[in-house]
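input
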Amino acid sequence: MRVVVLAGAVLALAAAPANAAPLHIHWMRGYPAPGTPVRLDRVGVIQVGPRSARNVLVLEPGTSAGSA
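output
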């Protein structure tokens, strides 16, 4: 999980122009799924750009992650 988040962060940094806002990674508690180790019950959010942005793009990995 960390590898995926870090890979996404590296790609975001590589694609960002030199004058872009700094990258922030926030970790939040996720759903405590039965049978899943506690260390994996969290969600990483990568914030790129200013907090004052008028529009926000949210990407959700997985085949049907955003269907609900």
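quick obs: The longest strand covers residues 23-29.
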